[in-house]
Amino acid sequence: MASRKPNTDASTEQLKADLHHLTQTIEELVNATADDSRSNIKELRERAEKRLHDTRDRLEARGERLYGEARDSVREQVDACDHYVHENPWSSVGIAAAAGMVIGLLIGRR
């Protein structure tokens, strides 16, 4: 899990930079609209659309990657639990009984 931290930080920084560039381009577009220079507006609009498209693609890719990593992590944890239960059935029964008692006591307090 620690090996994913630098990669996550790098992708977060990239996302911040993308959003900053997109914001700058949109601000330029708004400022250019005040000048009413048609060629300038068209150029800035195209740049804004390109950056918006690029940012959207990066966000979708990052979301898909994070979903995949979370799914893989949960799958590994489930496999580890399954392995532990098969290797230590009586310990697992004892842990489940203790957890059931604690939950029962907490529910009974209400």
Q: Strand percentage, roughly? A: under 5%
Percent helix: over 70%
Number of helices: 3
Class inferred from helices and paired strands: mainly alpha
Our Rg estimate from Cα atoms comes to 26 Å
| Poorly predicted spans | none
Q: How many strand segments? A: 0
N-to-C CA distance: 38 Å
Shape: elongated
> How would you sum up the major sheet?
none
Question: Which whole number gives the mean pLDDT?
Answer: 81
How many domain units? 1
The SSE order reads HHH
Record the SSE blueprint:
Elements: H1 4-35, H2 38-87, H3 89-109
Q: How would you describe this structure to a colleague?
A:
The protein has 110 residues and is mainly alpha-helical. The protein has one domain. It is built from three helices and no strands. The chain has helices at 4-35, 38-87, 89-109. Helix 1 packs antiparallel against helix 2 (38-87) and helix 2 crosses helix 3. It is elongated and about 80 Å long.
Brief synopsis:
The protein has 110 residues and is mainly alpha-helical. It has one domain.
Which characteristics define this entry?
110 residues; mainly alpha; 3 helices; 0% strand; transmembrane helix; YqjD/ElaB; DUF883 domain-containing protein
